[in-house]
Amino acid sequence: MPTKLPKNYRPTDKEPFMNAKQREYFRQRLLSWKKELLRDTNQTLQSLQEDTLQAPDIADRASAETDRAVELRTRDRERKLVQKIDEALERIEQGEYGYCEDTGEPIGLRRLEARPIATLSLEAQEHHERMERVYRDD
Predict the structure, then answer these.
(1) Four-residue CA torsion sign, 123, 124, 129, 132
(2) How far apart are CA 94 and CA 97, in angstroms?
(3) What does the pLDDT look like over 58-94, one tens digit per residue?
(4) 3-state SS class at 37
(5) In terms of pTM, does the model score above 0.90?
(6) Contact (Cβ atoms closer than 8 angstroms) between residue 92 and residue 23
(7) What's the CA angle centered on 114, arms 74 and 112, to 5 degrees?
(8) Residues 102-112 pLDDT 10s
(9) Contact between residue 55 and residue 64 where contact means Cβ atoms under 8 Å apart
(10) Which domains occur in the chain, in start order?
(11) Of 21, 46, 51, 127, which has the highest C-beta tally within 10 A?
């Protein structure tokens, strides 16, 4: 059963890391974010079904096609984000949320507030990005 959060609760460093309140706080944030993304996706799908590209002017039609392509790319990124949110929710259920998958150390509340789907601590993320730059194919 989910933990009841006090009104306006915000996690702090003064409490044990990833205690029940913190887990519930992040679970609710992730669920809310997912709900928002899915609502946006549904609106886009509805809009795409309603819109027909019957613009008489070729420039207007090209502009509409470009807008549609941008919207679809955005929704594809959001679809991937929903998958990461689901993975984060699963980590909460497994008791692994908030801990770096490379080091096992706490990721940190400030980083999780900024990026609730984070799987690496800031140091591990920076190391990962440095290694990507070193080994990327230019």
Answers:
(1) positive
(2) 8
(3) 887 778 778 778 888 888 888 899 999 999 999 999 9
(4) helix
(5) no
(6) yes
(7) 115
(8) 999 999 999 99
(9) yes
(10) 20-135 (1.20.120.910)
(11) 21
